[in-house]
Amino acid sequence: MTRIDIDNNQTKAANANNNSRMFEKRFNHVREIGEEIVSKHSASVDRDARFPYEAFEALKAEGLMGAYVPEHLGGMGMTITQLGALCYELGHHCGSTAMIFAMHQIMVACIVHHHESSDYLIGYLENVSQKQWLLASGHSEIGTGGDLAISKCALEPKDQGFSITKLAPVISYAEDADAIALTCRRGPEAQERDQVQIILNREDYVLERLSDWDTLGMRGTCSLGYTLNGTGKNEQIFPVPFSNITKMTMSPVAHILWGYLWAGIANDAFEKARIVATGHARKKPGTTPPSVQRLSQADSELFLIRSSLANLALEYEQKLSEQNIAVFDDINFAIKINNLKVTCSEKAFEVVMIAMMICGIAGYRNDSELSLGRNVRDIISASIMINNDRLLGNCGVLHTSV
Ligand SMILES: Cc1cc2nc3c(=O)[nH]c(=O)nc-3n(C[C@H](O)[C@H](O)[C@H](O)COP(=O)(O)OP(=O)(O)OC[C@H]3O[C@@H](n4cnc5c(N)ncnc54)[C@H](O)[C@@H]3O)c2cc1C
Q1: Domain ranges of the chain
Q2: Does the C-beta of 389 come closer than 6 Å to ligand 1?
Q3: Assigned CATH for 242-401
C-alpha cells in the first residue's frame, strides 16, 4: 500500500467517524423529539385521524426532511441504514409519523438516485433541504389494484409540457405536502407498463376528494382518495423509465424503511410487555412464568427482523455504491427485498400479538399506559401496504423464471 493510499484511507476513516458522531447527535435529537413531542400528540393524531403537525414542525426544525439529500446540496447525506434507524425510533412513538417520514424519504431517494443531472430535479433537492419541503406519493391508481407497475392515466402533451388526471385511491398526507410524485403512462398512446414518474408542485395540481380516511390504523397518514388534476413542464418528468426507479430505489428503499418503522412499532409493544413480564418474574422468583418465556420468543422474532433489515440495508448500500443500474437486475436481490417486506410485516405483527398475550387486559384497554391498541391497529397495515400475497406471487414468478 502506498503512502497516498494510507492517507486516503485515514481520511475516509476520519470522515466515517465524523459522520457517525454527527449521526449519533442527530439520532439523539430525533429520540428527544420522539419522547417529548411525537409521543405526546400520538393519541390525538390517531383519534382525530389528523396530520402530525407538531411532530413535523419539530423534525423540520432539525432539517430532517433533507436527511437523505447529499451534503453538497445542503442536506445531511445520511445512509439508508441511518434513515432506517430514525424510522425505527419514530416507530416507537407514532406509527403514522414514522410512516410519513419514511414515505417522504423514499420520494427524496428517487430524486437523489435518478435526477441524471437534471437542473430542475437537483434544484428540488435543494428546496427539500433549504425549505424543508415534504414530498408525497401518488403511485396507486383506481383500476389497477395494488400493481404499481401499470398505469391507466397518461401524460397529455400541452404547450411546453403536459396535463394529467389521475384517480388515486390513496395519497397519504396529500393536503399537507409541498409536492406529489406520481406515475402515469408516458403519453396517450403508451402501453400500461410504459410508465414515467413526474413530480408536481403544490401550485401545479388540484385535488378533489374521492374518499375519506377512517381506518383501523395509520390514521395520521391521512391517506384519502383523490382525483388529481395537474399540469407541468417537461422538466418535471423524471429522465429515466419508472421501471428503473422501482427496481433501484422505490422497492428496496420502501421495504427497508417500512421494515424499520414496523420494527419500531413492534419493539415498543415488546417494551410494554417487558414491564409486565418483569413484574411477573419478581412476584415468583426462581420460576419462569409463561409471560417471561413468551417475552424471549418475541425477542427472538425481533432479532430476526432487525438482523434481516441490517443485512439487506448493507447489501443495498453496497449495490448503490457500484453506481451501475445493471446490478439491480439481480433477481435474487429482488426476491430478498420482497421477502424482507413480507417477513418484517408478518413478524412485527406476531411480536405485537405476543406482547398482547403478555400484557393481557392492560394491553387490550385503550385507556391504559400499557395499551397496545395503536400498535395492533397500525401494524395490521404492514401486510396490506403492497399486499403480501401480491409480493409472494411476484417472487413465485421470479423463482420459476430462472
Ligand atoms: C397506510 C397506507 C398508506 C398508503 N399510502 C399510499 C400513498 O401515499 N400513495 C400510494 O400510491 N399508495 C398508498 N397506499 C397504497 C398501497 O401502496 C397499495 O397500493 C395498496 O395498499 C394496495 O391496495 P389493495 O389492497 O386494494 O390492492 P391489491 O394489492 O390489489 O390487493 C387486493 C387483493 O388482491 C389480491 N392480489 C394479490 N396478488 C394479486 C395479483 N397478482 N393480481 C390481482 N390481485 C392480487 C390480494 O391478495 C388482495 O386480496 C397506502 C396504503 C396504506 C395501507
Answers
A1: 3-133, 136-236, 242-401
A2: yes
A3: 1.20.140.10
pLDDT in tens, 238-260: 999 999 999 999 999 999 999 99
- Identify the CATH class of 136-236: mainly beta
Expressed in angstroms and rounded, the spacing between residue 91 Cα and the centre of ligand 1 is 21
Contact 225, 169 (CB under 8 A): yes
Global pTM value = 0.95
State the residue for C-alpha cell 419541503: 133
Q: What is the pLDDT of residue 67?
A: 98
Residues 380/373, Cβ–Cβ less than 8 Å: no
Distance 194 CA to ligand 1 centre (A): 20
Ligand 1 atom, smallest distance to 388 CA = 47
Instruction: Look at the alpha carbons of 109, 30, 340, 20 in this order and tell me if their dihedral is positive or negative.
Output: positive
Asked if residue 310 lies in contact with residue 81, where contact means CB atoms within 8 angstroms, the answer is yes
Statement: residue 5 has pLDDT above 70: no
Distance of CA 285 to the CA centre of its chain: 43
CATH architecture of 3-133: Orthogonal Bundle (1.10)
Enumerate long-range contacts of 289-295, CB under 8 Å, 24 or more apart: 291/357, 291/358, 294/354, 294/357, 294/358, 295/270, 295/354, 295/358
